Amino acid sequence: MDPDSACQSQAKMGKGGLALIGASLGARGKHYMCGSFAAFTNIIVTFPIQKVLFRQQLHGVRATDAMHQLQREGLRHLYRGLLPPLLQKTTTVAIMFGLYEDFSRLLLRHARSIGTPELVTRSTAAVLAGTAEAALTPFERVQTLLQDHRHNSRFNNTAHTFRTLLRDYGIRECYRGLVPVLLRNGPSNVFFFGLRGPIKQVLPDAQTRVGHMANDFVCGGLLGAALGIMFYPLNVVKSRAQAQVGGKFVPCHQVLMTVWQERGGSVVLLFRGATLNYHRSLLSWGIINATYELLLKVF
């Protein structure tokens, strides 16, 4: 067999194998699997950017100062805290896409009989999926502690951080910062799923697979970037709340007021890091949406 024929044969076998996996997953399961793979790809690519952004949210410093912090800590600590977002994001994005499809299918079945508008039904499905994602808040909690250099000597790794929190403070401590997560997840899902289709429709028609991927990237990236700016203060509140270990659980609005006062009542300082977050979200959600849609076609 000549090399070209061999390559074509291997490609067909690869596609056949993926099709077989898709068949075994079923129509419902593939949404979860595609979402998980898409999130995995995104986290590996964007984690260093996320770490710089986290330092800006927590300390209110410039991007260059945050980067200098990471440089001083060295490459050894650059991917410190990777496992929690890897586990959390691959699971939450799987839940986000998978449960949205499942809830939509279930609710639409009953909504037609009572005349509920499809927009209301799908928005409800998006909120329910976002609320379910919040069950994995402990991973965001551990990620925050591992990315905060003030805890470098206290927490060794993901497993050690979980053990310490559970042993010394109990399960409740793992859910510190849950309220801003809930306030962020539901509404952002509504906007993402509600606007994804209309935005893609106004983009130029794609004739090739690369063209479709580009449109999906632009669509997901624009939505992710816009929503990242819209809900940025909630992420600042979450980061500040989750950086605390032990002590009183401070209400969300009080944490926001504390940050506001510390930064001199400046909107600019409150949104410090928003520019980097915009670009990270543009890249991150572009990757997620394009990879998800591509995998759906492959499976």
UniProtKB/TrEMBL annotation:
GO terms for molecular function: NAD transmembrane transporter activity. It is found in: Mitochondrion inner membrane. SUPFAM superfamilies: Mitochondrial carrier. It is a multi-pass membrane protein. Signal peptide: none annotated. It holds the Pfam family Mito_carr. PROSITE patterns: SOLCAR. The keyword Cytoplasm does not apply. GO terms for biological process: mitochondrial NAD transmembrane transport. Keywords: Membrane, Mitochondrion, Mitochondrion inner membrane, Repeat, Transmembrane, Transmembrane helix, Transport. Belongs to the mitochondrial carrier (TC 2.A.29) family. This is Solute carrier family 25 member 51b. The lineage of its organism: Eukaryota, Metazoa, Chordata, Craniata, Vertebrata.
